[in-house]
Protein 1
Amino acid sequence: MRSVLSIERKRFWMFSGIGYTALAVVISLLFFTGTVFAAFPLTGIGGFVIAADKITGTGFKLYPQIGETSEKSVWPQAGVDLATAEIENLNLSKELDVSKELGSYGIYKVIVEITASPEVNGNNLKLSISGLQADMVEFNNLNVKESKSDSALNKIGMTAPGITLIKPELNTHSLLAQSISLPSMKLKIKAFDDQGNLIGGDF
Amino acid sequence: MRKKMGKTIQMGISGGMVAVFIGSLVLHWPWDQVLILGFFGMLLSGGLFIGLVDRLNQNQGKRLLAVSGLIPGFLIGGGLYPITGSLPLSVLFGLIGGVIWFGGCGVFFIRKLEALQWYVSYNIEIITTFILSIIGTSLGLRFVKMIYTPYEWLNAIFIVILPLILSLCLAIFPGVILARNHRRPTFAATLGLISGAIVSWIGINVAPLLFLPGSGLLWAGLITGGLMILVSIFGIFYPQWSSFLGGLMIFFSILSFVGAAGGLIIGGLLGIYSGSLMGAWVQKEEKVIQSSLEGDENRQAIISEY
């Protein structure tokens, strides 16, 4: 392999050593300072559903925005910012239609699921959502305010220092987190037939 | 001995993957049983190779690439089911077609390209070909659905031909790129283009958010991804600058972790690897020598020093 690659072995190790060490330094800096980057976008995978038993957040902000979904390039959405969030029994899922490739083998749908429990902690979360439903939502000092602006996106906003959502389900199009910890994370790929019955993949 | 061991491991992994594919998608077995089946598939395929290797000479050894046709055969056979009406028949047809395509036509094309010095064998050829053939088939089946026609017979032809051609082209591609690698850093540049495309894809996806307040460094994906692509292209056209361009590639790949999540991490890591390859790349001197191969006194063969 080395001969077809036409490389000098010593120089290759030098370059990759410097490269990966510099990357490790940059990533550690990002994590330790927590200020440099606002973006580790978990996007581009279209709409995915964030569900949980309970979300408790501080520094809640909700504002209208325009964003992209898996169906439309431009679509009205709501932007949600949370300074901190504690999420109980998180379930992040994405449904994929595989009827074209695997329909003949009886598999029509695959759901990729990421679960984490008991409690996920995140800082500086930014979400773009196009739907939210919850059994109960509690706000502390809710402030809904209209402001005069030429831009429709700045006319209305909703803020609250504290928010609690019970059994929420958010149809999310992008999730950005400055830092997030996922304890006992599990990744499941569940396969379903045309009737929606689970064939396998759960454990 | 080491080469034989490497090929045995690759055959074993390919066999294991075929067994997992059959167990999970065709037989719908639970995961624990699928894993046991995969283990036996690995032992069987690797074992078969050890038995075969002494019988096959160096030239016939290429026929082992036929294993790459198994999963494409399954997928294409499954696609034919609505047309034939019989799943076992479709799968059988697909399997035979896939194996013949890769073991026959594929090997024929590879030998022709090798004779023209446009293909070179490499260490992990079997497993790379195996994986790329699956990717090519999936892409081909997606294209087929896009050009769906009202004529069943025409659809059947497309379902067979498009994925087969795409899978073979993709499977041969690394060998072709590596064959030109001694003149220009083509392999490093190709990896660089792929990593740049992944980073840019993240940038394009977050682009609508740039117009919002507090969008931070979300622009970084577009810029660093674009620069990574540019550096890769420069690497092909200006091989004499490969050390400098390799360093630049590593720099932009590290930057891609700020704002673009390093192209979902894989794009950035691949970028650093491609930058290291480009930086360490050396042009091989070529010698034109008189060859007396096959009794042809005037035939010239260009061989590299290595």
Protein 2
Amino acid sequence: MPWRIDVDRETCVGSGMCTAIASNRFVLVADRARAVDATVEPDEAVLDAAESCPMEAIVVRDEAGRVLAPER
Amino acid sequence: MTTGQQPRTYPFGEADRLRLHPTYAELRRSEPVTRVRLPHGGDGWLATRYTDVRTVLSDPRFSRAATVGADVPRTTPLVSRDTNILTMDPPDHTRLRKLVAKAFTARRTEMLRPRAEKIVGDLLDAVEAQGPPVDLIEALALPLPITLICEMLGVPVEDRVDFRRWSDKALALTAFAPEEIVAAVEDLRDYIAGLVAQRREHPTDDVLGTLVQARDEGDRLTEAELVNFGVTLLVAGHETTANQIGNFVYTLLTEPEHLAALRTTPDLVPAAVEELLRIVPLGGAAGFARIATEDVEIGGVTVPAGDAVLVSMPSANRDDAVFTHPELIDFRRETNPHIAFGHGVHHCVGAQLARMELQVALSALLQRFPALELAAPVEEIVFKKGRLVRGLASLPVRW
């Protein structure tokens, strides 16, 4: 049941939060975050990254498209 | 590259107003990661380039937790024994940070903008009523962030005289005796513990109430973590922004060209806030050492496991590898990826709140007082000394 990661690079401020929490899942490219792979196997660290992003620029969804993080 | 050489004495000198010591620029050019000797805790490394600073701040091989209770290089005689959000590594840090992250997102912060505008409006009414000269630190810079963080946390703003006094001491390096600093932190803890106890009687939905609930119902943090978190949020939630409001207004009033640009083009305020965040060094000197948990190659040197590393964010923010003409103030930079709020997991949780407060304060001030100017010769404007952050003792203005 893979998850989908979307990073809104327009909203991202490049805080480095996600790349530090889940360094194998996110990378900074031109000072903005990007998912290393848009589709990943379930991984708590990805949820942590989405919950901790100050801009709420990361959205994690399950296969059915339900938002897993961030909580609103 | 510095093998066999004496480490440099650090800090390079007492913080001089808002100037950055020229040695940082020298080091960025020739010795980006260099040995330094601090007044306490011995020797460590200092990183000054943007890319290295960002690496130290975000690479998990550099630990904050390893500094707790350790005799690490530092500018204060006190060894920090506190475990708080600033001295934790993931996953503990993540566990705590997530509990409050929601309250400080850009979206939630933006919802507070009208409230911030109202607070500033009222404060500036009082300034007008009082008439010149007015000290903007007491009249605007302190009360705005204090009122907002109190409302968010659920701390009674009427208690500000007490917690201001404690907070001022808690952020001192040498301005007070070590035992006074320790006592002030203890007072802050007792104070927050009292508010926590109240919430157990009468639950609230403010940030402190949320943390109490997370402890009592979810067991998601310990009692000590809860109290220390409250203290950190209260202190960090106003000292930094209050000092920067003063520092930014001082900078604008002493740089007429940039002040004029903002007056003719008020839409520039958000970009101006970012540029002032980049150029105005809030920290007096690098602190918050990190310990390398393994040998790490950085900036052309190998930092051995167990060594302490300091980073200068103000220096990183003036790195010409990233910023064109970094010593110049330019409100129209195409990109401004400054790291004034840090980088990585410790990136300031209140960054969006601080940005919003700074924007509201500057906008309202310039709009209300088009002829605002210093009410004393610039050399008579005094900065506080011996503290973690730079800030004015008072900022007398007239209009």
